[in-house]
Protein: IS630 family transposase
Organism: Kitasatospora cinereorecta
Amino acid sequence: MGDSRLQPRVLSDVERLTLQGWANRRRTAQGIAMRARIVLACAEGGSNIAVAARLGVNRGTVNRWRARFLRDRLDGLADEPRPGVPRTITDAQVEEVVVRTLEETPEGSTHWSKRELAAKVGISPSSVLRIWRAFGLQPWRTETFKISPDPLLIDKIRDVVGLYLAPPANAVVFAVDEKPQIQALERTAPVLPMLPGTPERRSFDYVRHGTVDLFAALNVATGKVIGRLSAQHRAVDFRDFLEEIDRQAEAGLAVHVICDNLSTHKSPVVHRWLVAHPRVQLHFTPTYSSWINQVERWFAELDRRCLERGVFCSLDDLKTALEDWIKHWNDSAHPFKWTKTADQIIERICRYCSRISGPAH
């Protein structure tokens, strides 16, 4: 017969249900799920060796948790408090790290490094880094912002966002902008292709073969783009591009064009053309707010997928690549989905202005 001391008492209904719930948890073999399985297996009878073989654990592990359960029941399966190594960093040192990071800068520098601050406080650099992580501090990072000084900021935001979220009936909306000075860059050495474990490599220096300007009009409803290449981006070039938009837009529809505040967009030659073409109406984004123009998102795709890693041996190569990419985009075009309402944007700008206008600023 087995040793009766190794057999747990009969489980109560509450204990059995609790153990079964713990046993079904997806935890590691060292967690409470395995401990519950050990006790349940012991309750079915059998020696430590038999239970250990059945569950694939060490015999000593079965003995430990069986004995703990006999002594303390369910409470015995919990982890006992572990004192660990005494703290070597005091609360005062933690506070000093946070306060110095937020309110001081080292002499001759703009921000603290972990080693400089560690030497100042008298702790290790890794301890400084752990404190920074705990408090969400990243003194090596910085971000930029620009609050638009446009006196018509709110009106323009409501106008542009309204065209995105609720475009007028019997109308087409285009987000329009220029991408000037696109460079035809050729690397001074052949590009080395990607290999397993090695990324594509290219020389850092290049030869420039000229530049070209790209006018683009993104149909916000379909995602299709009207593009036009030009040697410059003068007022007459913008007028010619408006004519191209007017020609390609479906007859009978009003044409709403979203553009920025570039002086060429407001020149007399453009104004005269708009008077002669009343179905075309310009809507201007707020000053310093190109982020609100959806065509900028398309330009980001153009940079990432066509220009950033492109190699162009001549200006003609660049023009061909741009025309081909626009055609490829239009073959599978999809619109960008605008989600923020005008009120949400204005509220966020107000919150940010409140933060930067406080006493600390």
Notes: The two ends are 81 Å apart (CA to CA). The first helix runs from residue 13 to 23. The CA atoms of residues 14 and 20 lie 10 Å apart.
